[in-house]
Amino acid sequence: MKAAETRIDRFLASSETAFAIPVYQRNYDWTRVQCQQLFNDILAIGADDTQSGHFIGSIVYVHDDVYTASGLRELTIIDGQQRLTTLTLIFIALYRHAMATGKDQQAQRIYKTYLINEFAEDAEKLKLKPTDNNKVALAQIMDPKEAIKASGYSRLIENFRFFQARITDPNFDVVLRGVSKLIFVDIALDRQKDNPQRIFESLNSTGLELSQADLIRNYILMGLPRKEQEQVFRKFWEPIEANARNREVNESRVSDFIRDFLTLKQKDIPNKGAVYAKFKERYPVPNSADLMDALEELREFSHVYARLLNPDLESDPEIRRELGYIRTLEVNVAFPFLMPVYRDFTAGIISRDVFAAVLRLVQSYVWRRFILSLPTNALNKIFMSLYDRVDPAEYLISIERSLMQRGGSQRFPRDAEVIAMLREKDIYSTKSRTRTYFFDRLENHNNRELVDVTVPGITVEHIFPQNPEPAWRSTLAADEYALLGEKYLNTIGNLTLSGNNGRLGNKLFVDKRDMNEDGGEQGYRFSRLWLNRDLQALDGWGVKQVEARADRIAKRFLEVWPAPAIEVVAETNGDEINIFDAEEPRFKRLEYAVFLGARLNVTQVAKLYVEVLEQLLVLQPEAFQGTKLGERIQLTSEPDTLRQAVRVAEGYFVEGNIDSTNKFERMKLALSELGMEEELFIKFA
């Protein structure tokens, strides 16, 4: 490796040299923010005669003894392409301004020195050789005679227009002087002696932070010869990048996709910032057969991943609809399970009906858990290994059985507990997407003429209003009025959908029911929605009606989100039982406990409480210190603030003056917060 301080204008002025951006580099992504900062720096140093230079980072390249058809020396840029491309845009803007204002000599000097290799063939003239998606844009802005036309959005063209608008006659010479003072570290690598990938990883660049996907792409491609880079990129990485994109918001999800892939393969969920490290750990040899096999599988999975992200790509209307519901629920944690199931469907291993049933089963499981407010972090581990439990001979039943066998915080909620919670749950205050999903599924269950509840104007309506007009008090007893406002207001029994929410407002129930202003049929009586059907024959609205309506909706709930109709026995480890499934421990002794796979010979709940908290503090101290979890279990470094201080770690104490039931609850709280619900089993004596 050779490193030297170099002026950027001298680097770009290198004769018979092309600067090639390899396919593994990410797209040109500098925004106006970075461009504005660079341009401000150029103006400042250009106007300051006392400043001789301004450092802008490094440019790292590999020579590789590659020469083009025209005999040009080709440098492969592995770091610094964002700065190099942006500076090229500034030189083009200077060139075009000089051409437009009659500075022909300066224009030709800029053009022939910094932008082209004068004696190369036409196809090889441009010094900068960007990736394919930017080649056309660069060629357009280089030609002052051609109007700039871009098919779709081009960051390259937008940034050129930014510089073009800011270079004027008064600052033209200032910009030229400023650019000539820019200094960078020129790092030339020898592939035979240096490790470009390792050097690339260690660079502390001032540009945009690389994503996990960027690092993985570079790891796969950087070590390959140029021709193989192109082949692997076109065959594998290009389709992966195209498929793993959320088209709704036009964002890449490649990092998430590879994280889900690794989760499926390793049964371990990488942290979002460690996906690249885990990928390298699993495939430690670049260009190995294992890595090529993984790319083949990634490409295959990317086709179904595209439809998980973008359900409209699915041609089957029933599957498309269920995928849309999965997306609305934002059940991305299920992707490591759904990816191989979807692949089985596309391969003809399972039928459409089975796949649709699996998608509905996932919704039932997740939605019932949402109604009970069970911890969502338990879902990661569940879906991580669920596909391994699939029996090809009993595909759907084996998945149902696996989910129904789970206990504790991982359980599939049963009908009775779901209905009990549904009647009282504050549905109105949930996320808008979640609320929409709920009403959509309820309204369109068994409905051949589907109603689009997402159209503008249809909103959630409180039957008993949030701010009822005074006349409501005269129709209800004081205690009933209070109950409607305090207990039932935001529950499902008091909520419906209406396209006339603004008109109905805070009016009395009978007025809402019969409203027909100017023949507009705004009232419930005229509604075509299932959700309003029961309101059309009622003469009043009170607690009795709210509860009856909640029962009616609860019955439909069980039809829309059913539990599997199979009898199973909950999984246990012999006579041991998960703490989340255990009976109340009051007046009971323990025979022993199993925590993190190790047997604890404790017979008192109090000792188990201390042992578990002590180990959790060692494992994840940051989760307790200065957090709500620490407050909720009364963790403190000041023992005098507790009635009975019990030491659980060096300098830390918890309250010991609580009964066994409370100790159980605090252990379960800590385990849930840390995603360790399946790590503590007990056996009562």
UniProtKB/TrEMBL annotation:
Domain spans labelled GmrSD restriction endonucleases C-terminal: 413-555
Residue stretches making up the GmrSD restriction endonucleases N-terminal domain: 13-220
Domain of life the protein comes from: Bacteria
Name this protein carries in UniProt: DUF262 domain-containing protein
Source species of the chain: Paragemmobacter ruber
